[in-house]
Each structure stands twice: as C-alpha cells, then as structure tokens.
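Hi D.,

Good news: the full-assembly prediction came through. Inputs first.
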Amino acid sequence: MRRTKKAEQLAAEKFVSDTVARGDAARAGEDGNLPKGATHEIVEEPEGEAPKIRRRRFRLF
Amino acid sequence: MPPAPSSILAWEDDPGAPGSRRHPDAQPRPTLAAAPLPVSIDAKAPPAREFKVGSPEFRYWVAAEALARGAQFWGTILPKGTRWHSTNGARLPVELDEDVDLNAYYDRHGLHFFHDTVKGVTVYSGESPDVVCHELGHAVLDGLRPQLWDALSAEVAAFHESFGDMSAMLSGLQLQSLREEVLAETASRLDRSSRLSRLAEQLGWAVRQGHPDAVDRDCLRNASNSFFYTDPLKLPPTAPAATLSSEPHSFSRVFTGAFLNILAGMFRLQKKRDQAALLDTSRDAATILVTAIKTTPVVPTYFSQIATHMISADAATFRGRYRDALKGGFVKHGVLSLQAATSPPSPAPGAEDAPLARIALPAAHLGLPQELFVTAASHPKRFAVTGAAPDVGGTESPGHDDAAAAFLEDLVRRGEVDFNGHAVAETAVLAPKRRKTHEVVREADELVLVRRCIDCGVTLAP
Ligand SMILES: [Zn+2]
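Then the structure:
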C-alpha cells in the first residue's frame, strides 16, 4: 500500500506542478469563469506548498 | 404522395485545411434525441435541407450529424444504463459557437465550440466532425468512468484525451464512404497516415499559422506516429509537437498511436478485408476498449493497466482473437513492456494471496553479511505490469524498492525478525521478542526473508 501511495503522490505532485507551469491552471474570474485555455481552477494557494487545483473542463488541444 | 426523406449535407471527418477541395456528403436528417445518449443543440434547428457550405445552417447540420453519429455509435457499445454525467442533464447540451477561440471544451455542463479567423479563413471548431466526436468522447468517457475526471495523473488525463481522439476515429469509421476512402488511401494498411489518423486538419492548420510547433505538420494530432512510452514523471511539462511531453494532449499520442496500430492489426485478421470488415473491426475495438475501461483501476500507471485489461477483455469477449494485434500495438509504443506482453496477464494478488516477485535489498545495516531477498507488499493494481523503459525491460513504479526496504526496517525495528544465526551479532538488532513473525532462512546461496506467522499468534504454513 505504501508503494502505491508514494507512486500516486509523486504522480500528483508532478501533474499539479506541470499543469501550473503550463498555465493550464488559473484562478476563476469574478464571473466564475476560467481564462481561455485553462482546464483547472486554482482553488487554494497554501503558503509554501503547491496550489490545490481541480478540473473544470477538458479541451481539444 | 409521402414527403421525400429530408437530407442534409455534412463533412465526413473534417472540412480539411484550406485548398483541400473536399465535398460534403448528403446524409439523412440526424436524430439527436435518441436514447441512450440524447444530445441537445442550443440553437433552433434550421429546416433539414442541403445548405450551402459556409452558411450557419450548413454548420448546424454538420455538427448535428456528427453528434448523432457519435452518440448512436457509443450508445450501442456502452454497458446498458450508461448515461451522461448527471451535471449535464438528461440531454448533453451543445453550444455550437460560443465565442472566439481555436479550441473546444467539455465541462460537465455540455460541449462548447468556438470560432476564430486566421489569414482570412474563419474556422469553426464545431464544423469538424473530428473535433465534435473528440469532445463527445470526453462526455462519453465521463459517463462511463467519472472517476477519471479529476485524477491528478498525467496518464489518466492523457487517456481522456486519447479516448477523445479514438472516439473521433471510431465515429468516423461508422460512415461507409470514409471507410472506403481510408482503405483506398492506405492500401488497406490502416496504420499509415490517412483521413482516419489525421485529426482535425483544418483546425490544426489554423493553429499552425500562429504556433508552428504546437501541432503536427499535417493536422492537429496524427495517430500514425512512433511515440514511445516514457514515464511522464521524467518528461518536461511542455515540448514542441515533434517530441513528447507530460502535457496530456502530447502524451495521449502514445496511446492513440498504439490504438491505430491495434486497429490495423485487428483489421488484418479479418477474413475479407473490405469496408464491411472494417466496420466490424471498429465495433470490436470499441467493445474491447469500453470493457477494459469499466474494470481498470485508476492508478498512475494507467496506460499499462488499460492495455492489460484490454488483452483480458479480448480473451473474455473474443476468445483472444485479437491478442497478437493488441500486444503488437502496445509493445510497439512501449505501453506494455515486452515482458508484460509476453507473460499471460494474471491478476495481482491481494494481501492474503501469494506474494509478488522477490526483491533483493541491501541488508548490511541489519547485520546480515549479504543482501536479503524479500517479497513486496500487495498493491491494488489488478495486473502487475508496467510500461516499457526505453532501454530494456519495464519501468519501475516509483517507490517500489523504497517501500519494501521500509517494510523490512519496520519489521526489524519491531523485533519481529528471527535472524536464525545468519546475522553478525555485533551489528544486528537482535530484539528479544518471544514470537517472531518473520525469519531469515538460507535458500541455496541466498538469504531470504519468509513469513512465519501473523501477529495474532496463529502460525501459518510455510
Ligand atoms: Zn480533449
């Protein structure tokens, strides 16, 4: 179990960091919408930690 | 006299890049409200007539035909009772031209298409059946396996994109005219680049004008590719289209490439290699895919798990008829390592089952004169397989040895290991606990850790 948890954690950390690095994660605007192209909403930005993101949509490319 | 059946005009797969001189085909008026996957376009339907290319009415019927074709196809393949994700409502809402963008989206509240003008050409993403069936694929997969929606995993996100592209290919193959064209274009070798493999040529052209390295040279993404699996943990977040990155659309091309090879291999196995056989092939491939998706656990190494479940689904549904085609496609793209593909898929054991393979761990710090062989803890993957490593063998799941080493250290710390005199007394931690759960035994030249009993006092057979 420990092995899988670690694998999941590594995959998740890399996924979040890559998504943010590409600009695919963004805070929602006042209207609740994401900027063009973003797939994930940044829902929390804890200090000194990676942001928490959640998927809002899939896109064509 | 009864009224003549109304027909509309529609593209088969895509309008094509400017200058491609494609002609739309006449199709019967599509039915969007049909069960089990009804669709609702957020616009008044124009009369069902053959409208001029470029008119809004023409675009409406192109999108409607593609939506109806894709929904009807998947509706016959999915398990009974599969519906759209509930937040979409009973009918999947579709917005045909929402705003300016060279993209399209699925957001659990429907499908959204856009337009933009590039070098004097206005491109509507909803006018491409490839794009429409890609987005529809996201919605289909979300209805089938909602757990994939928010998994923080490059492989899971990439599989969603790949499913969109596979949906575009398979939906295209439901048209006899496209099947005939593809067979002619590829000389019946479906793994060649063709109308089937090239997704969204027009939109790909439009994106390429502003960002030449963002898309493939001849379309948005070409399934006829040679991308080889690399652990996405080791890939950069972005890369030019010619190379692989962990970005889901980029990484999806590994799986889609394997799928095109598989389709080609499955088609080669048909007795008569004609358009009717290609239709059967597309349905069988979709059945294998959907069966696997239903049972594959959501894990970081999702590609290799889906692949193994597809081989298993073929064995159960088609008595292994397509096994070699599946293995060939997956091995060629490294989705399965050669070892994983050549050993029969066997379910990975649960905690109470037989142990996994032995791992050699350094054991000098435990006072042992040589390395110690242990068995890894059970894990929730149903099949113990991995994707290929680029050199030889399979990729290691992250943390594999770490977890086993930590497990061993915990046992020793808790004084649960009987070293049976194999340890050097000066350096070993020889706890005086009465009942030991594990012991070190010599097997030939190796020292092996074996379980003696569980910690509740019940002694197990060796
Ligand atoms: Zn997509």
